[in-house]
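Input record (one chain):
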Amino acid sequence: MPTLDWIGKDKVINHHRDVPFRVLEEKYTYNAEHSDNMIIHGDNLSALKSLLPKYEGRIKCIYIDQPYNTGNEGWVYNDNVNDPRIKEWLGNVVGAESVDFSRHDKWLCMMYPRLKLLHKLLAEDGAIFISIDDNEQSYLRLICDEIFGRNNFVANTSWQRTYSMRNDVKGIASEVEYILIYGKNPEWQPKKLDRTEKMDSKYKNPDNDPEGAWRNIVASAPNANTHQGMVYAIQNPTTGELAYPPQGRCWALGQDSMLDAMNKWAEYELCEINDDEARAKVCGVSPDEVRKNVPAIMLKESLESAREKANIVMKGVLPEFYFSKNGTGTLSRKAHIKNVAGRPVTNYWSFEETGHTDEASRLLKGIFDGKAVFDTPKPPRLIERILQIATENDSIMLDSFGGSGTTAHAVLNMNKQDGGNRKFILIEMMDYAESITAERVKRVIDGYGDGKNKVEGTGGSFTFYYLGEMLLLPDGNLNENVGLDKIREYVYFMETKEPIMPESDNDEPYFMGVCRDTAYYFYYEKDAATTLSIDFLPQIKKKAEGYVIYADMCTIDKSDLKKWNIIFKKIPRDITRL
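The corresponding structure, as predicted from the sequence alone:
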């Protein structure tokens, strides 16, 4: 499998492990006392790591619209990686030689550790969708193959980003952008889309079938050569002629099932008719090679009697298998609309169904009273398509390049449309996280516009966060400023890879939770050293097969710890760094 190398890769390939864990500090909650929807202001690399204790392996769908790296000077959110903050990060992580990077090296160094953390957050049944253009598409595919696994590649979808072309475009006009899709596992499949009226118009109900509208489909299936036992003659009850599957095809069902189907027209039986030559022609083999002793489905009664019965059947509801043209044509099969799955997702998303950039810009201006507050927004309809094919009604969607807040807008739209309870998490590093990203979401929740342009609010809520202090200081000690609750949450996650549950037992203030028959305790006091001693043990009331207890010191003999299935862990020495 080809891999990609670039200047600085050795410095960033495991950099996500070195990023200090920072706590998330709540600033305010909008439109509710508490909300599971999140908008986070801060560097997305640090913010993604801060999400791990609660959300690792829980994010059903990730969409990112990261810098495209066009090379334009000056920071434009979806254009390049020349922002001073990115440059400073590259200098700190990679070193002084980063000033000599090509813009491709810079972009790859920026993306790689962020994708590594996104992979950790993605649920086992989840998928990631990444917008990109021609500048870095080939590079992005290679690093995603490396991080998410080549076998987990789903599609490179083309999104028709524009509905009209300028006449003064030089060279080949760019009409599409791309969305790379990877599943967490190879088994990931997109959900089907709703069917269109045009598709459903092909289904009729001329015979008043109680099963509903239907259309005729072929009664055969491919691969006659490998399914020769399903290649045989069926006698027509109206004409008496023998019907075979088309060249290279076999009947859709096994012979016993087809016999039952034909008995709905008249009395049939299996009968040897020595038709090896005709069957061999259908299978594409010689008569000597065709499977022997495959009987035909033949009338058991006279043709005249069978024809009378068939005429009666044709005046009522037709059976599943029937001969077209009033009984004189080919064998066909009914396909009822109620049994037809939705519309398959293709790798081309037209602007008619998923919106375009001009639509997105006009919508954003409408939300912000005619002001152009953001250069390159995506239309909510594009994100709604992703939600339709990749989420359930209660899924969590993450966008770590939150931008103008389109992802939150789309989630709120979908929840309003179908009564769902999807949640969003947006991360935005730029200073407009509150003035544009969060402000847009507020206006979408409440409604915006005036008069005939007024748009009803979606309802909903969110909590706005910013990146707080490091939980573990560079010297290895706990940063007590972050608060005990956040320390406990972190420690429990590092032990169990599960989120800690809210406290419910005031009788055990040091108890954190039970996971896989092991009870976890964090015996810590801000202003005093703690000791795991015999005197402390009566405070352990939770029944479990084993115990993990954190404290500053331990005076219990190792043999007694083993006897009582207790593992002592020293604070802060044994607290694992994320």
